[in-house]
Write a structure and sequence with these properties.
alpha/beta, Lyase, Ornithine Decarboxylase, Chain A, domain 1, 8-stranded parallel barrel, 12 helices
Length: 408
């Protein structure tokens, strides 16, 4: 999505001097490309989009429109999925925190709940026994070793003797179907997915003795598309969707190529789809010198797109009204609006920069808006373009939004 100064000025006039822009068409393109990469190898592949990565309702509704599932880890996210029209059966509920009343809600609605512990399974069995005429669909989140990587804190330890006993108990409960085996690890390296898929298929061979899982859920943690400049900053190599598919989908295909009733490969991408679909924009409000050091004051902050404590310079773009003579800086720090000393949007920027310029930070679609606290300022609006028309999809937060839950 390309912009000029005039377009950004029009956006400022409409919503204020800092905002996010969501490129929904890029998100759709990413979604289709990701799914194709896997389905070209293993056609029985489905996406369950990770709401926690970026739960802007337009994104989540778009996933539903494209035929994808919702992957949620809280009652808040679950309620959002229902509110935008996602069918309960198309909601995958993960995570370690499922209070009994919420767990009961998910099960009675017909959503697929991936059990994270033996204690949680006890609660599921309790609900099943209380509603013997209702059929419930569950999965088990499995924790197994991936060689060369630290253990995860999520899921049920498949080496625990209770795991086999749990499979027996589930198989004997007539109104309980184990429809999924799931895993989740935080490692983005492509090599880690080889261990992940081998591990889950070993679990499958144990589970299938008692139940017939419909889904093999590999979870999320896949990297997203990033620019060459950002790759250099992060010191990482470019990874394409097909790189993941060539490991995951090929291994699953090899396992089930002779089976008539192949399980569905369920992927839970978040960052992989949304990272490069959103940018943050702010304005340079002034430039000063402090003991020979040039400092720009902006209407944005590091908390809008990145951890406040990170010292990583995210690549930026500068948009200027003045296309003639421009002030060239050998080194200027672009500061954020907070009163925290370490709040810099960019340190030691080398280039043209003047008061009134706009600064864009790209690749901020992942864990940005969902992590932004009401620290000093409420969050900024989110806009998108539909057929070249500006559309506000999240209003600027207000004083009332932040403080209405407090009792005065």
């Amino acid at each position: 999505m390309r912009f000029d100064y005039s377009t950004l000025q029009n956006i400022e006039n409409a919503v204020g001097d800092s905002w996010y822009i969501l490129d929904i068409e890029r998100f759709i393109s990413n979604y289709k490309e990701f799914l194709k990469a896997f389905q070209d190898i293993y056609p029985q592949t489905q996406i369950a989009y990770s709401y926690k990565t970026n739960y802007i309702p337009l994104i989540c509704k778009t996933v539903d429109d494209l035929g994808g599932f919702a992957e949620v880890v809280s009652d808040m996210e679950y309620s959002l999925a229902l509110d935008i029209g996602v069918k309960p059966k198309n909601i995958v509920v993960n995570g370690p925190y499922k209070p009994e009343n919420e767990l009961k809600r998910y099960l009675l609605n017909g959503s697929m709940v991936n059990v994270d512990s033996f204690q949680e399974l006890d609660l599921v069995m309790k609900v099943a026994n209380e509603h013997k005429n209702t059929k419930f669909s569950i999965g088990i989140s499995c924790n197994f070793e991936i060689e060369g990587y630290p253990p995860s804190r999520f899921g049920v330890d498949v080496t625990d003797p209770r795991f086999e006993k749990a499979l027996v108990e589930i198989s004997k409960t007539s109104n309980l179907d184990l429809v999924s085996i799931h895993c989740h690890y935080p490692y983005r390296e492509v090599s880690s997915f080889q261990g992940r898929v081998y591990g889950i298929l070993e679990v499958y061979d144990r589970v299938v003795k008692y139940c017939s899982p419909k889904y093999i859920d590999i979870g999320g943690g896949l990297g997203g598309k990033i620019s060459k400049e950002l790759m250099e900053h992060l010191g990482v190599k470019n990874v394409e969707y097909v790189d993941y598919a060539n490991i995951i989908a090929k291994t699953v295909h090899a396992k089930f190529k002779e089976d008539e009733n192949k399980p569905i490969l369920l992927m839970e991408p978040g960052t992989a789809l949304v990272a490069d679909a959103m940018s943050f924009f702010c304005k340079i409000l002034g430039i000063k010198e402090v003991r020979g050091r040039a400092i720009a004051c902006s209407s944005g902050s590091r908390v809008n797109f990145h951890s406040r404590t990170s010292k990583l310079n995210m690549p930026i773009r500068v948009f200027s009204k003045n296309q003639g003579y421009r002030k060239k800086h050998e080194s200027i720090d672009i500061g954020g609006y907070t009163c925290m000393e370490e709040d810099y949007i960019y340190r030691s920027y080398n280039g043209d920069l003047e008061t009134g310029d706009y600064v864009a930070v790209d690749n901020v679609g992942s864990y940005s808006i969902v992590f932004k606290p009401p620290f000093i300022n409420p969050n900024v609006p989110v806009v998108t373009f539909v057929e070249n028309e500006l559309r506000v999809i999240k209003n600027k937060e207000t004083y009332e939004d932040v403080f209405k839950t407090y009792i005065k």
